[in-house]
Specification:
67 residues; 4 helices
Length: 67
Amino acid sequence: MALAIAAGAHPKAIQHRMGHSSINVTLDRYGHLFPELDEAIAVAFGERLAETHERRASTAVHAAFRR
């Protein structure tokens, strides 16, 4: 399974293939091989935060010119 994980297999796919009763079993067993999940979450959160910040800044600029 390590090769499948390294190739980008989703944890739910691993769960199904291995016949684990729950995703918790899969992540307890193979979780240490999924460090990119934390990275992906951090990147996505950072991107969303930047988009929100840009949108709010743009709204504030437009509001300032409407006065």
